[in-house]
Amino acid sequence: MSGDERGVEALAATVEQLRHDVALAQDSADARTLVGIATGILVERGHGGPTEAARHLEQLAADARVPLLELAADIVDAAAHDSVTDALPARRFRADEGPHTPAAALRMRAAEAGSLDGDPQAAAESLLEQALAPLGATALAVWAVDRGGALTLAGHAGFPPAEADRWRYVPPGVGTLAQRALAERRPHWHGELPAGALGIGCGRDTGGARAVLPARVAGRVLGVLEVCWPYAQPPLSAVVERQLDALAELCAHTLPGSVPEAGEGAVPGSAESPLVDLADGLLDPALVLRPVLDDRGHVTDFRIAYTNEHFTDLAGRSRAAVTGMRLLEAYPLAARNGGLHEHVLRVHATGEPFRAERMTLTALVDQVTITAVAAVGIGRYGDSVLLSMRTEDEATRLATLLQHAQRLGRIGGFEENTVTGEIIWNSQLYALHGLPPTASPVPLARLHHHAHPDDSVPINRFVRTLLHHHRPASTAFRLQRADGVVRHIRVVAEPVLDPADRLLAVRGAYQDVSSQHWTEVALAATRDRLADTEQRAAERNRLALQLQQAIMPPAPAPVHASGLHVAVRYRPAEKDHLVGGDWYDAVVLPSSQVLLTVGDVAGHGIDAATGMVVLRNALRGLAATGAGPAQLLSWLNTVAHHLTERVTATAICGLYTPQTGVLRWARAGHPPPVLVRGGSTGALPLPGGILLGAVPDAEYEEEQLTLKSGDRLLMYTDGLVERRDRSVERSLEQLLAAAGAPVPDLEEQLDRLLTHSRSDTDDDTCLIGIQLD
Fold first, then answer.
1. Residue 17: which pLDDT band, with cuts at 50, 70 and 90?
2. d(CA 249, CA 216)
3. Quick check: is 126 in a domain?
4. 22 inside domain
C-alpha cells in the first residue's frame, strides 16, 4: 500500500471518529436536557435545590431498577399532560421491545428535548434518530409555510444533500404531497407511494410509504411534517398516528411565527401578525415595511417584510422577488425630494398617517422610467409601517369612459344566469325598455313577446343560437314598449360556458339604434333612386321568398291516412338572397296511396324557387297516373332537362300503400332516409339514381320497406346536416345520434332535430317525419 493510500485511510478513519463523537455529544446533550427537565420538576415539587433533586432522581432510578433516562421520561410525562403524553401507549414497556430498545416515552421525550433550541434542522435530526427510526422511518422533511402556499425546507434528515438543495423552495401550485396535505389541512397516509407523486425523495423508481401531517400551533398551521419509509407499510396503528401528530406539533414550535418576538408582538410576515392580517384584508395592494437602522440607531431605509396577494409591482416583478428587498433598492426613484420614501420616514417618525389621492410613483426597468398615478395611504403600526396604494391604471380609466359611452350610446348591459334564472340589468336597460327599476327584467326566452310579431323569426333564431348552439349571436328587432313607443333595437350576446361546455349564463347588451335606423331609411331611399339595379335584385329576392313561403309554409298541418301520421317541417334560409329551391310534398292520391316527396333544386334566388314550383307540381300530376316511384323520377328527369331552364335537383319519391304497409321509394342523388325502429337508428340502403336534369334520359332503381307499428322514417334535405368543416358521412353520423334520442311525439322530434341542427351553410331545410301508428 502506498503512502498516499495510507494517508487517505487515516483521514477517513479520523472523519468517522469525529462523526461518531459528534453523535455521542448530541445524544449526551439530549439526555442531559431530559434529565434536567425531570430534575426541575422535582425541584418544583419540593425536593430541595437542583443538587438534592438530581441526587433524589438517581436514587429513585436505582430503587426502581430502571435506567435514569427512562425514569426522567416518566416524570416528564406525568407532569406534562401534553400532546406527547396523549400520544404514548397506555402500557409503556411492551414485551416486543428488547433490552436495548428505549421505551416509547423515552424516545418521544428524547426527541422533544432535541427540538427545544428552536432550530428546525436540529429538531429534524433528533426526531428521526430518537422517535422515527425505531418505527422504521429513514427520512423526514420539515416544511415552513408561506402565506402564498409556498413551502420552504426548514429542516431535513435522511435525504441526500443534493436532493435537499433541489427542494429547498417549492412555489405555490406545484402539487406536492406536502402541499396537498396543507390545502386539505389534514394528515395524509400513503401506505404505498402513489405513481407520479411529487415531493422530496419522490422519483420514477421511488417506492415506500409516506406520512404527511400539518404542523399546528394553537390551531394555526405553520408547516408540514413529511416522514418517509423505504418500503410499503400496512395502515398505521392508532398509537403511531398519535405519536406522529405529537411530533408534527413539536416541529411546529420550531418554525417561524410560532413565538412572537419579545416586545414587538407578533413578527411581521408571520402567520400571527395582526399587521399582516390587516394587509391581507385590504382590497388594494399593500406592503408591510420594517425599519433598517444604521450603527447609530437612525432609520436609513425600510425592508419590505410582506406584500399581500393584490400587490403588483410597477417593474413587473413577482411578490417573492420584491419581498425582502429594501424600499430604496426596489424603488430607487422613491428617494426624490417629496417622494414616497420621505413620506414613509415621516409617518414612522411621527406616527401621523398620510394619505394622498394622487401621487406619482416611479420605477426603473432597464434604465427606462415607468410612471403610474395612485392613491396612497401610509400608517404606522408599532415599529412597522403599512403602505397601501390603489393604482389609477388603464382599466380604471376605461371603466369610467365605458359608463359615459353607455349613457351616450343608449346601451344597456345584461347578464342572465341560465342555472338559477337570475337576470341582472343595468339602469340604462330599464330606461331603454321603458320599465321602472323595480320591474322584473325580461328573459331572453320571452323577448319575442315584447317585439313586433314580424320580428319573431330573427329573435327565435338569435335565442336558439345562444341557448342551444352555445355560440355568440346578434339581431335587430322592433321593441314594442308598454307606453306605446316603438324603438329599433340591436342586441348582441355571448354564452358563458364551463370547462365541460355546459351553458352557465348569457351576457350581452341592447342598443337603441332608432336614430340610426331612420338615418339608414333616408339613405336607403336615396340609394334606391341611384341604384335601381340593386332594387330590382331585391325585388327578385323578395318575390322568390314570397313564392317559396306561399308554397312551403314552415309547419303545414299534419297528414293522417290509414294509420300513417306524416309531419313536415320547413326552415327557410337565414338570408333573403339565399332563398333556395328545397321542397316537400305529402298528399293522399286518388288511389288511396300516400305520395311522400322531398327535393332540393340547385342554386338560390328566383330561378331556384320557380324551378322548385315546376318540379313539385309536375310530380303531383305525374303521380296521378299510378306509376311507381322509379318511373315517376324518370319522367320528372325529362321535365327537368327539357321543360325548364336546365334545372338540376336531388329528390326522394315514395308511395305508401296503407293496405299492405309497404313503402316503395326511389332517389335521385339525394341523402338517404333514416329509419328509427325500436331502439335502433340507421340509414336506408341507397338505390341507384342520378340527380334530376343532369342527362336527357335516366333510369332509377326502386326499393321497398315494410313499415311496422311504431316505426319512424325521416326524409330531409342537406340543409339539415351539411357543414363546411366536416364530411357528409360525419354529419350523417351526428344526425343518426340525434334521431336515436327517445322522443315520444313525432312533432316534438322534428322540432328538436331542427333546433339542434349543427349545419352552417345558411341553406333551406325540409324535414318529413313518417310514423306508423
1. very low
2. 6
3. no
4. no
Query: What SS3 state is found at 668?
Result: strand
Q: Is residue 669 in some structural domain?
A: yes
For residues 674 and 740, state if they share a domain.
Answer: yes
Does residue 96 have a pLDDT over 70?
Answer: no
Closest by Cα among 745, 633, 743 to 694 = 633
Write the CATH number for 511. Answer: 3.30.450.20
Boundary of a domain, candidates 359, 392, 425: 392
Residue where the block lists cell 338560390:
604
Distance CA 283, CA 389 (A): 10
Residue 113, C-alpha cell as written in the block: 428535548
76 — phi, psi (to 5°)? -65, -40
N- to C-terminal Cα separation, the chain: 106
Residue 38's CB is within 10 A of a number of other CB atoms, namely 27
Q: What is the 3-state secondary structure (H, E, C) of 241-263?
A: HHHHHHHHHHHHCCCCCCCCECC
Query: Rounded distance, CA 507 to CA 472, Å?
Result: 10
Say what percent of the chain tops pLDDT 90: 21
Question: Could you list the residue range(s) of the whole structural domain that residue 167 is in?
Answer: 134-259
d(CA 73, CA 659): 102
Residues in Cβ contact with 512 at an 8 Å cutoff, skipping those fewer than 6 apart: 410, 411, 432, 487, 488, 489
Q: At which of 340, 363, 392 does a domain end?
A: 392
Burial class (CB in 10 A: 0-12, 13-18, 19+), 360: middle
Domain count, the chain: 4
C-beta separation of 414 from 441 below 8 A: yes
Distance between CA atoms of 298 and 276, rounded to whole angstroms? 25
Provide the 10 A C-beta neighbour count for residue 36: 14
Residues 565, 666, single domain; the answer is yes
Q: Are 249 and 217 in contact (CB under 8 A)?
A: yes
At residue 568, φ and ψ (nearest 5 deg) are: -130, 140
Closest CA to 223 of 159, 311, 156, 158: 156
DSSP 8-state class, residue 366: T
Distance CA 600, CA 763 (A): 10
Residue with cell 421505551: 103
Distance CA 394, CA 400 (A): 10
Contact between 151 and 143 (Cβ < 8 Å):
yes
Give me the residue label for grid cell 408534527: 248
> Is residue 641 domain-shared with residue 657, that is, in the same domain?
yes
- State how far the alpha carbon of 145 is from the alpha carbons of 153, 157, 218, 232, 316, in Å: 9, 19, 16, 28, 24
Q: Which of 644, 574, 638 is nearest to 604 (CA)?
A: 574
Query: Taking all residues of the chain, what is their mean pLDDT, rounded to a whole number?
Result: 78
Within-domain flag for 402 = yes
pTM score over 0.90: no
Query: What is the Cα gyration radius of the chain?
Result: 43
Name the one residue in this structure whose C-alpha cell is 417549492. 170
DSSP E strand stretches across 342-436: 354-365, 368-381, 384-391, 411-417, 423-425
Q: Which of 754, 676, 746, 686 lies closest to 720 in space, CA to CA?
A: 754
List, as one string, the DSSP characters of 750-767. Answer: HHHHHHT----S---EEE
The rounded distance, in Å, linking the Cα atoms of 362 and 373 is 9
pLDDT of residue 1: 53
Residue-wise pLDDT for 223-255, tens only, equals 899 999 998 989 888 888 888 888 888 888 888
DSSP state of 672: P
In SS3 terms, 187-221 reads as CEEECCCCCCCCCCCCCCCCCCEEEEEEEEECCEE
